[in-house]
Amino acid sequence: MRIIRDLLAASLIAIAPIAPAFAESIQDASGRVVELASDPARIFAAGPPADVLLYVLKPQAMLGWVRAVPENGLQYVLPEVRDLPSLGRLTGKGDTLNLEGLLAAGPQMVLDYGNINPTYLDLAKRVEDQTGVTYVLLDGAFQKTPDTLRDLGAAIGVAARGEELAAKAEAIMAETDRLVASIPAKKRPKVYLARGPEGLESAAKGSIHSEIIERAGGINVAEGDSKGLITVSPEQLHAWAPEIIITVDRDFAANATSMPELAGIPAIDNKRVYLAPQAPFGFIDAPPSVNRLLGLRWLTAKFHPELAGEALPQAVRDFYHDFYQVDLSDEQLKALLGA
Amino acid sequence: MRERNWTLPLAGVLIVALVLGIMIGPYPLSARQILQELLGQGGGTGATVFWNIRLPRVLAAALVGAALAAAGATYQSAFRNPLVSPDILGVSAGAGLGAVLGIYLGLPVLAIQLLGFGTGLVTVALVVTLSLMIGGSVLVMVLCGIALGALAGAGISLIKLMADPDNQLPAITFWLMGSLAGVKRGDLMAAAPAILLGLLPLALLRWRIGLLSLGDDEARSLGVEVGRLRMLAVAGATLVTAAAVSMAGVIGWVGLMVPHMIRLLTGPRFDRLLPAAALAGAAFMVLVDACARTMARQEIPLGILTATLGAPVFIALLARGARQWRQ
Predict the structure, then answer these.
(1) Some GO term, biological process aspect, for this entry: which one (chain A) (predicted)?
(2) Per CATH, which fold does B7-19+58-320 belong to?
(3) Which residues of chain B are within 8 Å of residue A94 when distances are taken between CB atoms?
(4) Has residue A294 got a pLDDT over 70?
């Protein structure tokens, strides 16, 4: 009986946006202008990138997580979102949520954020047609982050917060650009992004998983032929000879300098292998969302410690305060950035 | 010409392939540098690339190719079925399930390989036990293999569904496509004994296994203990395949295609087919792996290359075979 009641309630809420009380609108990635309910209190994030976007802007409207924040990351998010349920993802391949589950959660709108292509646009439209819930799909390109924060904030009733975060995002990008511009092309480091326990998976140049490396003034050595994830051999790594290795894998970070087949690679010999922090969200991608702003700042510090290293701890503190609304203790900061 | 012994010429082909294999790679190593390394006069990055990366990889490719081709030839003779490949009894699917589980649990690489090896063997043991309980004919065994293979496939899909899509899912996908990109000396040391141990009974019993292809009754009349011999052949071929798959991931088609091609040269006699197929499989895999690391700037999974080469050849063989089988 409870399920039926929930479903009824959900469908009533689902119909709500069709009621005449339109307040705000936003232009989504398909180019259409979507009318939204005024100050929506129940927003469903469709994928991990949307999770982060919604969390930084309006955590009180979250219905759940697509992917729950892992145990060790919970201390870095607000207490009220720590116990939200994992609802599963809605878009793309590997949907783990069905549409009835979506309606049962009773959202006033679905927020999706990430890569844009005809498949995703069509999926969004199909879900909207079938459920009657407004589906807003926003372009996840890193460059558009400030605009997205500003526009979405205004559309979902948190205009001031959107404006504040957009300004901070713009400041981080501008600071990075200024720093990168001051460095001659010859001094740009050659960087390899290592994924997987052996560090032999990577993301090629131009991939959404690695785009902030170039933005931070590094040269991604992985000249793959695809825009997604690729595998590489240790031999190829020697041929690329990266000066810096950024990794998202704890095991690889711990073992890289003692792996005999990697000896001789400049980054390994000079011990310039850096593990990107992952809590509460990844710095490099995982997911590719607003969290990458901090990754950008972190990368510039790793690429050019003499220019940007000293101010990094304060920048991390500020970012967690501004975007995640948590104040880091000294221990937490140390745990994130390493000793 | 059919009765000629092809072992020596194919050994020559393998040596050429090995030489080519150690010369080819994305890191430029000249013939002189390689010679210097072999004479112990090299050093630096060249030494790392040669001794720690390329040589283990080329040897692993040879071992895996020999293992898969020998296992395929054995299965085809023991089951008297030309369409049988080494994974017919579920060893690849079983090993895949174990390895994928290992990736999902975040185990170290060696543990992932061991788990894959173990589940591959356990799957085949289950298939054989089940088929003996049901009735023991070859057909029942193959059908049990297909069924348990499907079950393992379902398990793999389930783990994919639960895996972290950012890190684990790509790792699982890459593993299931097969690659030697990350092979280390340690991996080679771990897999080689198992592969050699499995090849040993096949080599020693190659005369008798050849008799199985005459049919059970005739083999029995020649004094062969059919049931036990077939089990021994299956055990050896399974051990070899499980070791190869746990090191290199799932690589299809080699075990099916190479024995067929070699049979065109040697004729159906298993005692000649086995060494020839093993040598040819090794040479083929060394060359395919050289393509895998040089054709594009990223690694091309071996499964893609072997299937792309294998499917057309197989269809050509089918067209040729259909004429013969009709007679």
Answers:
(1) cellular response to iron ion
(2) ABC transporter involved in vitamin B12 uptake, BtuC (1.10.3470)
(3) 160-161, 165
(4) yes
Segment A278-289 mean pLDDT: 90
- Asked if A78 and A203 sit in the same domain, the reply is no
Q: Percent of chain B at pLDDT above 70?
A: 97
Statement to judge: residues A152 and A228 lie in one domain: no
Chain B, nearest residue to A195 by Cα: B167
Structural domain including A240 reads 183-337
B220 near A CB under 8 A: no
State how far residue A72 is from chain B, nearest Cα, in angstroms: 16
Same domain, A192 and A164: no
Residue B63 has pLDDT above 50, yes or no: yes
Average pLDDT of span A107-128? 86
Q: Which chain A residues have a beta carbon less than 8 Å from that of B179? A: 231
Residue A87 maps to a domain: yes
Q: Which residue has the tokens 């072999």?
A: B38
A164 lies in the same domain as A53: yes
Query: Any idea which of A6-15, A63-72, B188-197 has the lowest mean pLDDT?
Result: A6-15
Residue A145 lies in a domain: yes
Considering the domain architecture, whether residues A7 and A122 belong to the same structural domain is answered as: yes
Going from N- to C-terminal start, the domains of chain B cover 7-19+58-320
Q: Tell whether the model's pLDDT for residue A285 goes beyond 80.
A: yes
> What pLDDT score was predicted for residue A2?
54
Judged against a pLDDT cut of 60, whether residue A20 lies above it is answered with no
Q: Which residues of B touch A197 (CB under 8 A)?
A: 106, 108-109, 171
Tens digit of each residue's pLDDT (9 = 90 or more) over B144-165: 999 999 999 999 999 998 887 7
Boundary-marking domain end, from A117, A149, A170: A170
Residue from the list B109, B161, B171 with its beta carbon closest to the beta carbon of A96: B161
Q: Give yes or no for a contact between B60 and B191, defined as CB atoms under 8 angstroms apart.
A: yes
Contact A234 B297 (CB under 8 A): no
A101: pLDDT strictly greater than 90: no
Residue-wise pLDDT for A197-239, tens only, equals 889 999 988 888 888 999 999 999 998 777 778 889 999 999 9
Same domain flag for A191 and A326: yes
Q: What is the pTM of this model?
A: 0.80
Instruction: Tell me which of B95-104, B183-192, B277-286 is least confident.
Output: B183-192
Residue whose entry in the numeric block shows the structure tokens 């793999």: B156
**Residue A240: both structure tokens together:** 């690329």
Higher pLDDT, B294 or A339: B294
In a domain, A177, yes or no: no
Query: What pLDDT sits at residue B163?
Result: 84
Q: How far is CA A136 from CA A52, A108, A112, A247, in A?
A: 15, 11, 6, 33
Out of B28, B161, B297, whose CB is closest to A224?
B297
ipTM exceeding the 0.85 mark: no
* Residue A178 is assigned to a structural domain of this protein: no
Chain A residues touching chain B at CB-CB below 8 Å: 48, 67, 94, 96, 195-198, 200-201, 204, 222-226, 229-236, 238-239, 248-249, 251, 260-265, 282, 285-287
Counted domains in chain A: 2
Token pair 């369409």 is at which residue? B83
Any idea what the CATH number is for the domain that residue A148 is in?
A: 3.40.50.1980
